[in-house]
Amino acid sequence: MFEKVAQMLAEQLGIPTSKITPESRIIDDLGADRLDVVERLLTLEDETGKTIPDEEVAKIKTVGEIVEVLEKL
After folding, report:
1. In the chain, what are the domains?
2. What are phi and psi of 62, to 5 degrees?
3. Residue 37: what pLDDT?
4. Structure letter (DSSP) for residue 23
5. Gap between the Cα atoms of 6 and 17, Å rounded
6. Cβ atoms of residues 9 and 60 within 8 Å
7. How confident is the model over 16-59, as pLDDT tens digits?
8. How far apart are the first and last CA of the chain?
9. Coil, strand, or helix at residue 17?
10. Of 21, 40, 52, 71, which is least surrounded by CB within 10 A?
11. What's the CA gap between 48 and 17, in Å, rounded?
12. Are 41 and 60 a contacting pair, CB within 8 Å?
């Protein structure tokens, strides 16, 4: 799941996947904004068939947290 999330973020943000780790902070480290985060989460929901609860979306700060939330669903 991490590889899928990293690839999607890399494509969206125009950065190499090698810069993305589970500890990468999506906004601070990768240069995304909140809209990028929301768009990526919506795409991941569509692709995985899982719905991330709004309260979880608000807490997500790192790539690893996206993976954790998706794996729990």
Report:
1. 2-72 (1.10.1200.10)
2. -120, 165
3. 85
4. T
5. 6
6. no
7. 999 999 999 999 999 998 888 888 889 888 988 989 988 888 89
8. 12
9. helix
10. 71
11. 20
12. yes
Q: Rounded to an integer, what distance in angstroms lies between the CA atom of residue 4 and that of residue 28?
A: 20
What are 1's two structure tokens?
A: 């799941």
Task: Please state, in angstroms and as integers, the Cα–Cα distance from residue 28 to each residue in 7, 34, 37, 48, 57, following that order.
Answer: 18, 11, 12, 26, 17
Q: Which of 33, 36, 46, 54 is catalytic?
A: 33
Give me the amino acid identity at 56: E
Count Cα neighbours of 13 within 13 Å in the Cβ-side half-sphere: 25
Question: What tokens were used for 56?
Answer: 């979880």
Residue 11, both tokens: 């494509």
36 as an active site residue: the answer is no
